[in-house]
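Our consortium's second objective concerns turning raw sequence data into structural hypotheses that experimental partners can test. To show how far this objective has progressed, the report includes one record in full. It was chosen at random from the queue rather than selected for favorable results. The single chain below, 306 residues long, was entered without modification.
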Amino acid sequence: MSNTPSMAVELAGVALKNPIVVASGTFGFGREYGQFYDLSQLGGICVKGLTAAPREGNPPPRIAETPMGILNSVGLQNPGVDAFIAHDLPFLRQYDLKVIANISGNTPEEYGQMCEKLSAAGVDMIEVNISCPNVKAGGLAYGTKPELAAEVTEVAKRHATVPVMVKLSPNVTDVTEIARAVADAGADALSLINTLRGMRIDVNTRRPILKMNTGGLSGPAVLPVAVRMVWEVANAVSLPILGMGGVSTGEDAAQLMLAGASAVAVGTACFADPFTPLKVRDGLCEIAASQGLERVSQLTGGVRPW
């Protein structure tokens, strides 16, 4: 095996010591996982989704297992953006990793307000979740209509002084249409995919297993969808991409990078094994080394279609 390749990558001008980020909603604010290992070993953390005001989330049951994944309808339970800035951001700043704040709003104005607060507080990047329903548009998710996605992106960019990354929903007919809309609106980066909508039913009670009936599917089952969508988006726009969806091994991460991702987020796999992000990092390094690469970043966009 050749010399160890450099693991450093860049995402929208933000330097990551390695391409492994932990996905929003799967790592909380880092305190629990920080009991297992030094969080400074990660490239970055996408913190649990934040809203303008605290949210209790949806009633249970709100997690259901599926073959090769889980369904969740947690409902954005979080302490609110102000509590995060006061209590959780100082904790994360003890570590040498990039902090990416994930935000969800009911209106474009809420997104703008949160971008101002988080930028001033000193996060490294803001991840804008556009899978949330727009109250003014009758509950239609921002991420399903190009014009709504563009509007939120424009407002976020106007109020943020750090890079803005928009998280794309896979629950659309053509993900590249949304990607182009947010790119034209000024997004600095894209993250994808978010969860796929799914449902499970208890055949004995005849009730859905989740109290909210449907939920978001994540885990290994969605990896092929994530690889396909990252590849499509990478060919449609020139923005850097944080790829995610079903990553549990170095090979999974390498697939997303070859498809066009600059960095990779590990999510659901953390529930089964808290050390998964570090194992993915090491596995990715081994793959890059075995291919004689000087830098792991050389994997990005390296797929050779037939």
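The partners drew two points from this record. Residues 276-290 form the longest helix (15 residues). DSSP finds eight helices and 16 strands in the chain. Both points have been shared with the crystallography group to help prioritize constructs.
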